[in-house]
Design goal:
binds flavin mononucleotide; oxidoreductase; 10 strands; FMN binding; NADH-dep_flavin_reductase; Pnp Oxidase, Chain A; Flavin reductase like domain-containing protein; riboflavin reductase (NADPH) activity
Length: about 200
């Protein structure tokens, strides 16, 4: 069956078992493009972090956000102990960081040279250099559900990042660029084609 958006309904997953639903849910999640973040906090005075896409705006009243962290992730307990965390919105080009901080069991200490020491009210908020933006949060609530903890943060301070910042996006299990960027690229190619066609 064709899978283009204008080709009409697509077949439902044929396997209605619990395992089939789990697999199907995973597949549908992989269709959801998501911004990649590095969630960071202080652990025994050292900055530590993990890659996460389960990050969502919650409210502006009060400014708040939520992150979903696996209950067995070391970062979960580190955030609870610290009582604060930073949502570092990674920029396009920071794929290496995303890979490094998503490796299970690897050392998640953030080297000092990656940190923006001028950001934030104090050193308890590990903000990374070169990010598209950062939300410095105080942990307000933790709700455990299934394998994950939903962690709610009250935003205490922000780093807006450059106005033309491009976030790192994860889609179909790989890092991709944003649509806005493709539009930009298409415009540039059109401009360049026009320029060469007109002999400018
Ligand atoms: C693109 C991407 C997104 C991820 N998003 C999340 C997430 O939202 N929540 C989560 O718990 N783990 C997520 N992970 C997995 C964690 O980064 C990974 O389990 C990490 O090793 C946990 O580290 P820790 O146990 O040292 O805290 C993601 C991994 C990748 C590659």
């Amino acid at each position: 069956m064709p899978s283009t958006p204008d080709a009409g309904p697509v077949a439902a997953r044929p396997d209605p078992s619990a395992a089939g639903t789990r697999l199907g849910t995973r597949t549908v999640f992989s269709r959801c493009a998501a911004t990649v973040n590095l969630i960071a906090c202080l652990q025994d005075g050292m900055a530590t972090g993990m890659t996460a896409t389960s990050v969502c705006s919650l409210s502006l009243d009060p400014p708040s956000a939520l992150i979903c962290v696996h209950r067995e992730a070391r970062t979960r307990d580190a955030i609870v102990a610290a009582g604060t965390f930073v949502i570092n919105v990674l920029s396009r080009g920071q794929e290496e960081l995303a890979n490094r901080f998503s490796r299970p069991g690897s050392d998640k200490a953030i080297p000092a040279e990656l940190l923006n020491t001028h950001a934030g009210p104090d050193a308890s908020y590990p903000v990374l250099n070169g990010v598209a933006g950062a939300l410095m949060c105080r942990l307000a609530n933790v709700v455990d559900f299934g394998s994950h903890s939903i962690m709610i943060g009250l935003v205490e301070q922000v780093i807006e990042g450059p106005a033309d910042a491009e976030p790192l996006v994860y889609h179909d299990r790989r890092y991709v660029t944003t649509v806005a960027d493709l539009d930009h690229l298409a415009r540039r190619i059109t401009d360049e084609s026009l320029i060469s066609a007109l002999g400018w």
